[in-house]
Amino acid sequence: MASSLFTDLNGQPIHDSQVLGYGRTGVVVRRGSSAVKIPLRHPWSTESDVQSNMEIIMREQGVYSRFNSFPKDQTDGIVPCLGLQVNATELAHMENGDLRTYLEKNQPSRELQMRWFRQMAQALEQVHAKCVIVADIATRNFLLDSELSVKICDFSEASLLPLDTDMETVDNDGFSIQTDIGQLGAVMYEVITQQKCDFDRFEDGIPMDGRAIWPRRTSLPSTEGLWLGEIVEKCWVEGGFRNAHALLHALRSADREDSTLKVSIRSYTNAAKKPMVMLSVVFGVLIIISAWIRNRS
């Protein structure tokens, strides 16, 4: 039998069938109807590695604790945190897994994509309103529930800031609400095109001061001719959207324009059909009259 890739903190192997996902610092396992995130530990991990991962889990728990202090309707775009234990974060299980894996097997309609993008922008607005910078927004960090609604998860790299922080001006070592919006633009591009896109803040390596740097435009793909390309492009311009609410407003406007265009096309199609129907009726009547005249003769 192949050895397990992961072990719990007691050194006991975790069966592959229990693993829902994993990242650089944590592994998520299925426990009944919940998903429990614990520090990542491989059979070959050093104690220093495990200790570092435990500290990151504890820091992430501080973010979830902040979210849980607000009413649920203010955090409904975030995967619900059901409980916090020492070195274990209990989360609601999302039946349809992560968005990246879903996209590998499915081609969502534009209507579903637009719904996701609005939900993503609204989730980001909720996170920023709680004075949190995500810093790691990717398709693998959005999960889908039973109704294919998308919710954000994974705050292992997030910055938990004081609640009186001016989120539109704060800069945390190069990370800000603007870098979060830039990363969300890359997620939108990946969903639309089915091509992986990375908004890399360290494309030239980590600077001596450790600060993130806004990526060069040439490191990102072209949006020319892309559906919602103007919105994605604006996400990649620092300050293009003042905040996540402005992005959400732009998506809602684009959705209304799409809906209006579809209604116009349907109306035009229906109107075009009417003369054809009348012509068919007249032609049918003429055939009947001609047959009647021939019979009379």
UniProtKB/TrEMBL annotation:
* A molecular function (GO) term: ATP binding
**Domain called Protein kinase: residue spans:** 14-297
Q: Which InterPro entries match?
A: Kinase-like_dom_sf, Prot_kinase_dom, Ser-Thr/Tyr_kinase_cat_dom, Ser/Thr_Kinases-Pseudokinases
What are the transmembrane regions?
276-293
Q: Which UniProt keywords apply?
A: ATP-binding, Kinase, Membrane, Nucleotide-binding, Transferase, Transmembrane, Transmembrane helix
Pfam families from the entry? PK_Tyr_Ser-Thr
Q: What is this protein called?
A: Serine/threonine-protein kinase HT1
Q: What is the lineage of its organism?
A: Eukaryota, Fungi, Dikarya, Ascomycota, Pezizomycotina
